[in-house]
Amino acid sequence: MPRIPGVPTRQAGWLTRLVYRITRQRFGAVPEPLTVFAHHRGVLINGVLLEMGTEIGVRHLPVNLRELAVYRVSVNLGCSWCVDFGTMLQRHHGLDVDRLREIDDYRTSEKYTDVERLVLAYADAMTDTPVSATDEQVAELERRLGRKGLVELTYLCALENFRTRMNSALDLTDQGFTSGDACRVPVPADRPVTRARG
């Protein structure tokens, strides 16, 4: 159970119910972090706007690079909810999720291209505390991805650090998104969310 139980649908206001309905239609279930954010309307609105804005405005990099960078941050910080959800997103984008088993060996694995290795190493550096990104890394990524691509990559890694740390602090763990096309457990009408176990 998360440290703060999610707001059940029957206790949610109209805006939260709308968010629940839209995300349930999109992902097959309401993401549990949203049910916890629902305790604070301002945080919920800000979070939804941030995610919508990111989805609309961050499309310069190829999807495989975007998703790999975000996934790597999640793995590094040990957020099982983010790893679960990120795996589902990669599957929905038609990416090879089987190669994620070799993510810790990306430097030597033949499953990853040279540019993917650079992106994953940068995700590692941005997850380190303190951040360990180097001038050389940034210069090489700018050369390969362009300045716009580098800025987008940096934004996505920073955003996933935020998501992962928040989810981990609240003890939000995997919700079962990788057990099928999406989790089949909707937010119940009269009790907090329970997690599906695959």
TrEMBL record:
Domain Carboxymuconolactone decarboxylase-like intervals: 59-124
InterPro entries from the UniProt entry: AhpD-like, CMD-like
Domain of life: Bacteria
Transmembrane stretches, start-end: none
Pfam families, per the entry: CMD
Xref: Gene3D superfamilies: AhpD-like (1.20.1290.10)
Protein name: Alkylhydroperoxidase AhpD family core domain-containing protein
Organism for this UniProt entry: Streptoalloteichus tenebrarius (strain ATCC 17920 / DSM 40477 / JCM 4838 / CBS 697.72 / NBRC 16177 / NCIMB 11028 / NRRL B-12390 / A12253. 1 / ISP 5477)
Lineage: Bacteria, Bacillati, Actinomycetota, Actinomycetes, Pseudonocardiales
